Amino acid sequence: MIAFAAPQFAWMLLIPAAVVVLYLLRRKYVPRQVPSAFLWQKALRDHAANRPLQRLRKNLLLPVQLLAALLLALALMQPYIPGGEAGRTILIFDISGSMQATSGGKTRLDEAKARAEELLRGLPAGEEITVLAAGEDTRQMTLGSRDREEVRQAVLSLACENGGADLERAVSLAEAIRREEEAGARIVVFSDSYIPRSAVTAVNSGAGEENRAVSALTAEEGRVYARIANYGSDCTVTLACLADGNLAEAKELSIPAGETAGVTFAIPEGTVLAEVEIREADALAADNRAAAAVIRPVRRTVALTDDSLFLESALKVRQDLTVVRTSGENPEGTPADLYVTGSNPVVFTRYPGETVFSFGEEQEAKASLAAENTPLTAGLTLKNVTLRSFRPVAGGKAMLRCGTEAAAAYTDSEVAVGFDLHDTNLPLKYDFPVMIQNILDLLIPRQASEAPETEPLMPARESDVRAVAPDAEGPGSGALPHGGQDLTTWFLIAFLFLLIAEFLLARQPWLRAGKTAKGGKRHAR
Amino acid sequence: MLSDSFLARLDAMRLAVRGRAQGGAGGSRRSAKLGSSAEFSDYREYIPGDDIRRLDWNALARFDKLFVKLFMEEQESAVTILLDGSVSMAEKWDTARMAAETVGYLALTGGDRLKVVFLQEGEPRVSPVLSGRPAYARLEQFLDMCVPAGAGSLTENVQHLDGLRKGLCFLISDCYVPEGMDGILDFLRYCRQETGVIHVLSAFELAPELDGAVRLTDAETGEKVDVLADRETAEQYRQALEAFLADVKGSCFQREAPYLLLDGGKNFEEEMIPLLAGSGIIG
């Protein structure tokens, strides 16, 4: 009994029928006018060779060509004799978000399960089957199970995740299992992705479909910003924005093929959870809806003891900060999240009066300022920055140096700048606000109010369901491996043999003679 | 259309006539009557009243009797060329026309009265009666006006002819007559015509070279025949052609009508004279 590993090529069996039809229909008669058809009518009156079936009967090449076409079709279906010795098979299922894409009413994962069922039927009894589910993490569903029912249940229980799939890791794991086996094991991956590994049989479970996705969503007080990606042809989508489950606004958005478009919705003040959804159905439903918690920054206060216009302006760049003035003598009297005290040195501290730094005598700056590689100096160039004098800073970790001495240093809770801002042109350079923001990020980082957790957005590579294996012609493409004896090679050899036989036959003079008719003969008079 | 050198070669030939000529005016054909031509026929004894200029003085000296030499009276013959003008002749018209010119030239130089009948659909086109070598130019003018066109049955066209004088008749045609040539030849015989058939076929008709599948369209009837050019078809055509030629030739032989088959694909002037001699049309 012969079974076929690639029955989806069964339609190729129509080729022999097509050959017959071509034989019947291929006659394209070349028109030619003759003085009289009298003799031809007389000649052909009883000549049945122009009848289609007679023509077939008389053509010796036809049976050869029919047989060759049949063998080719069967070879493409990859025939094999089922059975053989039991071995090990590792099935890897891609359960990434794109496997939820539907085509013809079935998801790609459903298609993969159906194909796996087909594969399981062809495997010999006693085969040890391992099932791995490849999502963001790889899960082992069965390990070397001989219980076919257990394997079936494991396969049926697979469900897609909304994230990606680390197939590389899953295949590596499968290969590690295979290496442990002396007899080896075959690895079959059911995925809609391309697996460029020669030792792995990839069974493509899907074809490209059109999909639209919410690719980004940010919600803040009063408004929601969403970005919609179009993984398909030009389209217009209807978008609905929900604020805490109630419809806040609906919009239509036209997106060119393969591009993304942004859209803003207004939501009521006090909304906690904002959602945006695409109303039109597409191949992948999971990415048509996204939710985001509304971000509300917590306001912070910075107390400034000295009057420095540069410093105040740089601090106000952070919109969540309120800058207040306080007495240099008793800064603690003003409640604040950060205190900026003194003018030479300038100390940024969360706890005034408790400093780890000590400052030396003021000395002339003999070298230019240089930045140490610290988080606080990120983005600083200090180009053309000059310094007249400074007080060396001891303690903490140096962030700015003048020669070998530290001109500024920091700890986790305070930053000391050992020079007067009036003795340098640093505040006139763009390095200054950058440095101040770095200091603020260290000492009083931005904080948002408590927000409900939301589902992460589906990765773009998963939403783009068009990005399937290059050889995936349609759902269920890719030949299934089997445990039996493969007959494909024998069929191909027989096909080639017939092809050569047909070629040699066609060159036979006694066949070729029929190609050109030279009727009549020169009559001697 | 015929070259001067070919016409010069024709000058030495005469159309062969089996029967005696019967025409009004004097010509170069031997008539049934004895006359005054230079051609000796017989002797008979002198009877009073005979022209003494015809006495054979040598016989008188030898036998001592008066004998009169009898001479053939030469009269002209009526030569009619029946030229098939159906569209099936178009492909081999040049050959057919040269055959008509050849026969016409032989008739004119032989002192016969020539008439050409162009058999076309409906009324035939008939040339004036031509005689004498200078009329060859008028023969050419007449043939210039003849263009094969239309269909029509050759049998019907011939049988509707009237005013045929007893004489020689040459039918130039491809002889595609489904009912056979017997009817035509019998009719002409009935009209006291000593008929010769010049059968003209094109090279394609004699040896068709077809490749693949061909849809042949009859130029006259528009009928279509799908032909698959294979060995078998070629053999069938060859057999049909041979049967057809044998049929036409047989009809002619049964009626002692000279028959000549012209191949439109060959050089006419090289082929024609041996064919004419072999067929018995010239003598």
Chart the SSEs and their pairings.
The complex is a heterodimer of chains A (525) and B (283).
Chain A: E1 3-4, H1 14-25, E2 30-34, H2 38-44, H3 52-58, H4 61-76, E3 79-81, E4 88-94, E5 102-103, E6 106-107, H5 108-122, E7 128-134, E8 138-145, H6 148-156, H7 167-180, E9 186-191, E10 200-204, E11 211-220, E12 223-231, E13 235-243, E14 246-255, E15 260-266, E16 273-278, E17 289-295, E18 300-304, H8 309-315, E19 321-325, E20 338-341, E21 346-349, E22 358-359, E23 363-364, E24 369-371, E25 389-390, E26 393-394, E27 397-402, E28 405-410, E29 414-417, H9 431-443, H10 460-463, E30 485-486, H11 488-506, H12 509-512, E31 516-518
Parallel strand pairs in A: 4-7, 4-9, 9-10, 11-17, 18-19, 18-20
Antiparallel strand pairs in A: 1-3, 3-30, 5-6, 7-8, 11-12, 12-15, 13-14, 13-16, 16-17, 20-21, 21-29, 22-26, 23-25, 24-27, 27-28, 28-29
Chain B: H1 4-10, E1 26-45, H2 57-63, E2 67-75, E3 78-84, H3 93-109, E4 113-119, E5 125-126, H4 136-144, H5 154-159, E6 167-173, H6 182-190, E7 193-201, H7 203-206, E8 209-211, E9 213-218, E10 224-228, H8 231-254, E11 259-263, H9 268-279
Parallel strand pairs in B: 3-4, 3-6, 6-7, 7-11
Antiparallel strand pairs in B: 1-2, 4-5, 9-10
How would you name the oligomeric state of the polypeptide chains in this document?
heterodimer
Strand content of chain B: 25-35%
* Shape, principal axes of CA atoms of chain A: elongated
Helices and strands of chain B, in order, run as HEHEEHEEHHEHEHEEEHEH
Radius of gyration of chain B: 23 Å
Largest interface: A-B, 35 and 56 residues
Residues in helix, % of chain A: 10-25%
